[in-house]
From TrEMBL:
Keywords: Glycosidase, Hydrolase. GO terms for biological process: carbohydrate catabolic process. The lineage of its organism: Bacteria, Bacillati, Bacillota, Bacilli, Bacillales. It comes from Paenibacillus amylolyticus. This is Amygdalase. Belongs to the glycosyl hydrolase 1 family. The active site is at E385 (nucleophile). GO terms for cellular component: cytosol. Transmembrane segments: none annotated. One of its GO terms (molecular function) is beta-glucosidase activity.
């Protein structure tokens, strides 16, 4: 017998962006310089060289802080969402999305991070933005920290390695909860919190050449983020009792290369490590396998009194995650063909096609990820990033036909529906880069995720005009039928 369970009433179909990749206006209205503003365009680095794409040095940062030109730092200009949000939100409203995930740039509210008073102009910007979303029938879903922090905290505190940054972040969090408590009912603490182990600067403000033992610094910083996230949960429940707040993970599903138990073990270890972050944020304790890893690597985490209770008591209400691709693990990958993603790679899976950027496309992996997460934690899940980065072509008549994107989204949504039939509780689904924006890893514009096209190239040339792609109409229709 087949079940035809539909998407639940109120399912949050939506789109996702991040402040640092869309807003631009990096130095207006009192905004301070953030880590994202130092990211140069990396289109000349090979697509598969994700390590180089994510590398950061003191020398590079010093040059970025001196360089006031906007040409090579695409996130400084974004897609000018800062000024064009009314038009963009009207288009998204027309598309019918129920929610928009975006983030608040910490540096708009506290330019250096450690001020005691917030920057009113920055707060006003988000007042206007959130009001405009609501006006267009779009429920705000807000990430507190999406791949950026004040550069001042990097240079003067060593980023998240300093415990003081927890208090500084709590001040920021308290400020925005109090200010936007009537407008925002869905919050996310740290975007892809696990990313700190792969790109310490982006997530943790850690400049590797400033630390003797980078891994030790990374796990200390991560502990501080776990604590800051627990405080955010506590504060959110106190200040906005009718809101929900979730953690956020990059889903990095690994298959074994063969059925050799050693390959199975390699895949198991990778999957287990991927869930370490949610184990802490949802189960509330550091799991045994990671304590073992710390012992074996000589890593010691400094914890303050009360930390364990805090983690146990203030766990996330839901798990949100990004899903783009799956990976293959082998106990001995010597000589095997490899593929990459934006922050990591692995052995090639011969059964899967790849995107223009070499990412493996695996819709069934989404169903598996949903099932794994739900059976382990039994809390609602929210897919807050899924989408295809691809080259798009604007026809002479101005139309943009992107059947490859439609097929990517359609096949993933189909598998999400399968997971729903499997009994998985899913709150919503937001397409990453609902509007073309600056890519995270390579800071380029050509890698387009949007259902709305933005006329801008890698060097910032273009009219910034917005156009509806074929996928815009497809998603509009899908939402109006609640996914079926
Ligand atoms: C996720 C990030 O890792 O992947 C986004 O949360 C990012 O910020 C997205 O944009 C896609 O990666 P990229 O490098 O192609 O932009």
């Amino acid at each position: 017998m087949t079940t035809t369970r539909t998407f639940p009433e109120g399912f949050l179909w939506g789109g996702a962006i991040a402040a640092n990749q869309a807003e631009g206006a990096w130095n207006v209205a009192g905004k301070g310089i953030s880590t994202a503003d130092t990211a140069m365009n990396k289109k000349n680095i090979s697509k598969s060289d994700y390590k180089k794409q994510n590398a950061v040095s003191s020398e590079q940062l010093a040059a970025a802080l001196e360089d006031q030109s906007t040409v090579n730092y695409p996130k400084r200009r974004g897609i000018d969402f800062y000024h064009r949000y009314p038009e963009d939100l009207a288009l998204m409203g027309e598309m019918g999305i129920k929610t928009l995930r975006t983030s608040i740039a910490w540096t708009r509210i506290f330019p250096n991070g450690n001020e005691t008073q917030p920057n009113e102009e920055g707060l006003l910007f988000y007042d206007r933005l959130l009001d405009e979303m609501i006006k267009n029938g779009i429920e705000p879903l807000v990430t507190l920290s999406h791949y950026e922090m004040p550069m001042y905290l990097v240079d003067h505190y060593g980023g998240w390695t300093s415990r003081e940054v927890v208090d500084i972040f709590v001040r920021f969090t308290t400020t925005v909860f109090n200010r936007y408590k009537d407008k925002v009912k869905y919050w996310i603490t740290f975007n892809e919190i696990d990313g700190i182990v792969r790109h310490p600067f982006t997530n943790g403000g850690i400049v590797p050449d400033r630390f003797e033992n980078v891994e030790q610094a990374v796990y200390q910083a991560l502990h501080h983020q776990f604590i800051a996230s627990a405080y955010a949960v506590k504060l959110c429940h106190e200040i906005i009792p009718d809101a929900q707040i979730g953690c956020m993970l990059t889903s990095l599903l690994h298959y074994p290369h063969t059925c050799n138990p050693l390959d199975v073990l390699a895949a198991h270890k990778n999957n287990q490590f991927n869930l370490f972050f949610t184990d802490v944020q949802v189960r509330g304790t550091y799991p045994g396998y990671i304590e073992r890893y710390f012992r074996e690597q000589g890593i010691t985490i400094e914890k303050a009194e009360g930390d364990s209770d805090l983690l146990k008591e203030y766990t996330a209400d839901f798990i949100s995650f990004s899903y783009y691709n799956s990976f293959v693990a082998s106990a001995d990958s010597e000589g095997l063909e490899t593929v990459s993603g934006n922050t990591m790679g692995g052995v090639k899976n011969p059964y899967l096609p790849v995107s223009d950027w070499g990412w493996q496309i695996d819709p069934i992996g989404l169903r598996l990820a949903l099932n794994h997460l739900y059976s382990r934690y039994q809390v609602p899940l929210f897919i807050v990033e899924n989408g295809l980065g691809a080259y798009d072509n604007v026809e002479e008549d101005g139309t943009i036909s992107d059947p490859y994107r439609i097929e990517y989204l359609r096949s993933h949504i189909e598998q999400m529906h399968e997971a729903l039939l499997d009994g998985v509780e899913i709150m919503g689904y937001t397409v990453w880069g609902i509007i073309d924006l600056i890519s995270y890893s390579s800071s380029e514009m050509e890698k387009r995720y949007g259902l709305i096209h933005v006329d801008q190239d890698n060097d910032g040339n273009g009219t910034l005009e917005r156009r509806r792609k074929e996928s815009f109409f497809w998603y509009q229709n899908l939402i109006s039928n609640n996914g079926l």
